[in-house]
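Need Spore cortex formation protein SpoVR/YcgB (Stage V sporulation)'s 3D structure for a figure. Predict it.
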Amino acid sequence: MREEEFERLEQQIVRLTDLALQFGLDPFQMRYELCPADILYSIGAYGMPSRYSHWSFGKAYERMKMAYDFNLTKIYELVINSNPCYAFLLENNSLLQNQVIAAHVLGHSDFFKNNIYFHTTQRDMLESMAVTSKRFRQYEFEHGIDAVEQILDAGLAIQPLSIWCHRFQPW
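Structure prediction for Spore cortex formation protein SpoVR/YcgB (Stage V sporulation):
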């Protein structure tokens, strides 16, 4: 985006936020970031801006980024359900696209904040994940990357089963 478009987007975000509040939305305080595609897809692959290192995230990144590079898919934005709520917008979007996406993101934030299904969300997850990432780097230093990766491989292999068991408990 050009500088004047960036300034216009900032003005429109203020206007859109005011309109959202007037219409009764109650979003978290918002933080917007314009990101190049490689950063946005990196966040998408890792699930967060900061996370422990694992080869599967690189695999996911390559798959997502290749689909973007071949114009098969496009992530217009990523929103993190935290307080404040972070919205990462694709810098290659047009000004109009980012304006519409900013309004859309306010709806996400209101939903995250006010929907009963999200009331148990850890709202400081960005800080928590950064601390966890640091702890995993320390484990790699103390025990070696291979040992940590073996544990992560085992945990990530059964992760889908834990989600399934949680949803379909027969008891």
